[in-house]
Design brief:
The chain is built from 15 helices and 7 strands. By secondary structure, it is of the alpha/beta class. Helix 4 packs antiparallel against helix 5, helix 4 packs across helix 6 and helix 5 crosses helix 6. The protein is globular and about 70 Å long.
């Protein structure tokens, strides 16, 4: 029995190495294989192909259990590709091809509904939902939502102008910032594009059009970094903690109660971000091309949703 097989049979070790237990891995593999076959058909039948089918390099990664485990280990532990290759007794170039190929398929396999919220909200708009109570009855999954941004460290860009954009004054490091929106069941319903660490949370909310993507009557909870959003969207049901005014010693009791209510619900998004950052590719210094990080983050978000709902 190989070391990888021993790890898979132990549920705790499997979660530590792959982020999923044995049952979840096999279920994800069954969903991934049809997508792989379809992807290969499109690749082989593309119009700009220079060789006939069957020509060229013969060794290619496939949608096998080992390939999925290679990708999951890379995401979960964020080892170097050379170390991952040694762990599975394959070449580093094979690890690179597997990670590259799977990056476009994992999100659709793990959670094909992630990012397709717009279609559902358009349906709700046609139904002319009048208030929060009607929204709860029509679509309880999107009645209460919480939004927050997550920062992941990245390598310092060599270009001085670029590195200034990625420097986060809050984290005192170069980071990539991605915003997520969850519902009260702790399911991720929306993932924004990734932005340099210097971009403010509120600007990401505006650039991504998050408010417009969500149902108008949804109760949307934000932290103090989004102050002003409620004034810019008076028709939306936005809850932001109340700040003390200049010179004010203490908030009134009703304001404290409101802030406590928001905090008790908002903590859920912090828990979800913590689960995402259990995959060390999102919490350790990201070494890859920055333009590929967003797809990786969406893959991890989809895997989180998958483990949140899968048996």
């Amino acid at each position: 029995m190989s070391m990888i097989e021993k790890i898979m049979r132990n549920e705790k070790k499997s979660k530590r190495f792959f982020g999923l237990n044995h049952q979840q891995i096999m279920l994800l593999l069954s969903k991934l294989q049809p997508l792989w076959i379809e992807s290969e058909k499109r690749r082989l039948s593309r119009t700009n192909r220079k060789r006939s089918i069957g020509g060229g390099r013969q060794h290619r990664p496939d949608a096998s259990l080992q390939s999925l485990l290679v990708c999951l280990v890379y995401y979960k532990l964020y080892l170097t590709q050379e170390f991952t290759a040694a762990l599975f007794d394959i070449d580093q170039s094979t690890v690179s091809r597997i990670v590259s190929k799977f990056s476009t398929l994992i999100a659709d396999a793990a959670d094909p509904e992630l990012g397709k919220l717009i279609r559902q909200t358009e349906t709700l708009k046609k139904n002319r939902i009048k208030n929060f109570v009607e929204l709860q009855e029509a679509c309880p999954d999107f009645a209460d939502v919480i939004t927050d941004a997550s920062e992941s460290p990245c390598n310092r860009p060599q270009d001085n102008d670029v590195q200034r954009k990625f420097y986060s004054g809050k984290q005192k490091a170069h980071t990539i910032k991605t915003q997520i929106t969850i519902n009260t069941a702790k399911k991720i319903v929306l993932v924004s594009e990734s932005h340099p660490g210097s971009v403010h949370d509120k600007k990401i909310l505006d650039m991504d059009g998050t408010i417009d993507k969500l149902p108008e009557k949804a109760r949307h909870m934000l932290d103090k970094g989004y102050v002003g959003v409620d004034r810019e969207h008076p028709n939306s049901n936005i809850l932001i903690p109340i700040k003390k005014k200049r010179g004010q010693k203490e908030l009134p009791p009703i304001a404290k109660q409101i802030n406590t209510f928001i905090s008790k619900h908002r903590i859920k998004v912090e828990h979800v971000i913590g689960k995402i950052k259990n995959f060390r590719i999102c919490s350790y210094t990201y070494r890859g091309p920055r333009d590929r990080f967003n797809q990786i983050f969406k893959n991890i978000a989809a895997i989180y949703n998958f483990t949140h709902t899968a048996a």
